[in-house]
Design a protein that fits this description.
Layout (H helix, E strand, L loop, with lengths): L1 H80 L2 H31 L18 H33 L3
Length: 168
């Protein structure tokens, strides 16, 4: 019986010690839960503020980006026009379109003058209707680079949003 009495006393003593420690732990856990709830509430409020600010200003930012695009395209066109290879390319493309238009003009004149329709566009000489694979490469690579730049812009915007929500 003594062993049981000693063990019972030990259990009571340990239980009392555990209760002493459990109370501060429970208080700390409750404080942590309250702080986390408050933080979540603040984050939600800041997220709503950020979304409202974006909703109020997105059209101005979209206009700014549109203007940025126009200016960049103008600059690109100006720089491109200075390139000798591009001037030669334009010359070739212009000659192709002149041929297409003049062939149509000539076959129309032939029909109006003689009443005969010419088979196959009349001249038998076709300028070709396909673009250079070189343009495909430029477009494909340029689009990929542009998409990456746009993704970087959106990543920065998302980082700005997260920083705002986190109160940084």
């Amino acid at each position: 019986m003594t062993d049981a009495k000693a063990l019972r006393a030990k259990v009571e003593k340990l239980r009392a010690e555990a209760e002493k420690k459990a109370n501060p732990l429970a208080q700390a856990e409750a404080a942590l839960a309250e702080a986390e709830t408050q933080l979540a509430r603040q984050r939600e409020e800041r997220a709503q503020e950020f979304e409202q600010r974006t909703a109020n200003t997105w059209q101005a930012e979209a206009q700014r980006l549109h203007t940025e695009h126009r200016h960049a395209m103008r600059r690109f066109t100006e720089l491109l026009a200075e390139e000798p290879w591009f001037a030669a390319f334009l010359e070739a493309r212009a000659a192709r379109w002149k041929h297409i238009h003049y062939s149509s003009y000539g076959t129309g004149a032939h029909y109006r003058a003689t009443g005969e329709r010419l088979p196959d566009g009349g001249s038998g000489i076709h300028p070709g209707y396909h673009d250079s694979p070189f343009l495909d490469v430029i477009l494909r690579e340029g689009e990929q680079l542009a998409k990456n730049m746009a993704a970087d812009y959106m990543d920065a915007l998302e980082a700005e949003r997260e920083a705002y929500i986190n109160g940084e």
